[in-house]
Amino acid sequence: MSVVSYPRALAGHASRSPEGRALVVDDRVVTWRELDRDSNRLARAFAARGVGRGDFVSIGLPNGAAFLRACFAAWKLGAVPQPLSAKLPGRERDAILTEAQPALVVGDAGETGFAALPPDFDATGEDDSPLEDVCSPSRQALASGGSTGRPKLIVDALPAEIDPEVPFYGNEPGTTVLVPGPLYHAAGFVNATTTLLLGGTVILMTRFDAAEALALIERHRVEWVSFVPTMLQRIWRLPAAEREGADLSSLRRVVSSGAPCPRWLFESLIEWLGPDRVFEAYGGTERIGGTLISGSEWLAHPGSVGRPTGGRRIRILDPDGNDLPPGEIGEVYMMPPGGQGSTYRYIGAEPRATRGGWESLGDLGSLDADGYLYLADRRSDMIVSGGANVYPAEVEAALDAHPAVLTSAVIGLPDPDWGQRVHAIVQLAEPVAETVLREHLEGHLARNKHPRTFEFVDTPLRDEAGKVRRSALREARVPKGGGSTTHRS
Questions:
Q1: Do 302 and 393 have their domain in common?
Q2: In sequence order, which residues have a C-beta less than 8 Å from that of residue 82 and are 6 or more positions away?
Q3: Residue 376 — φ and ψ, nearest 5°?
Q4: Across 247-261, 359-373, 408-422, least confident range
């Protein structure tokens, strides 16, 4: 088969297997015929409200069939889906909508004045016959920047077209894929929509639960899944009998992405599932660069996130733009095969940093002699304490290795003696003394990297996509000097 538009790909699957499973949500099956015809109806409702080719359609819906229906309805008009979290605070949602200037909002448009359809909109009365084939100029426009307080859109440079017979990063045509994360995030959105476009079956979770994820893999014979490390950590913390009792023999590929996977956790996954089924991926929504590593490669290069894929290139540069030798940490710069500007454009922002066409997403890392990338942390999150560099992700990984820790976030707070002090914010699964965590860290980190202060909270520190907003956590605490739950050592 050749490259076709997204609408044509969906119509092809509906024609070949009308009663086949396209999507399963909470045990409710959506067939290919349903998805195709329902999105035809919804597309006509969108068109009646002025949506046309190249327009943004902002979709602020929770995980479910309605979200994916809205995406295909937009594509059938040549429009661009612009996913939003349905849980966004009004101010943040409105700021993103102001940047997007959508022709239509599916969900809550707040007081922005943009045309909107309610989340429960019913297009049953519309014509469900095929529309004229049209290709959107962009696959999606994902929102980002919430961690900095300045929203931006990342508009994909590729048109909404695909060859339904060509695999996508190990996702083969016809594969059954579990999507455990939010559809507004790049991983969930791309994995769900690509699986459908390849004629596979999406098993979609409305909210992540570790035990339910294993049950769904067993029940639906899932072959491919991508988790963020927070999800993998929650699965690993299940009782051993429950975790090991699940039948996961159908799995061919388990990918960790969205954030660096702690070494101890990735190694545990390799031991549990085997090195040939476990992978880690690194990259940004901008697609300027990306790496992939298998468990087998990881055992030879422990801690690495792999080598560049798909013709992408990576350099490690010092602050003056000079290439650094293997093993030295600097800023990670990337170049896609088509050159700068070939994969995305921003609305509401400029590229973070460029060096002769090479771009950076703000990450720090190093390469080894074989070209494998090792991430350190975000440039903006690095803590300089007493003249030494401390990488929050490394400290968080050590804290998260303790069985009593659910999530952690490490930030630098002003300190008159140290310049910045390492401050750990910890969500516990069960009560544990601070001294126990300090003793635990002795076997994981050099002493200068240990948190000087701790703070214990009852709420998760990472969102559904596994992201932590360190800048927001820092800003909330600087005026208060750490708060009453902070303890100095």
A1: no
A2: 56, 57, 58, 59, 100, 102, 140, 141, 142, 143, 153
A3: -105, -60
A4: 408-422
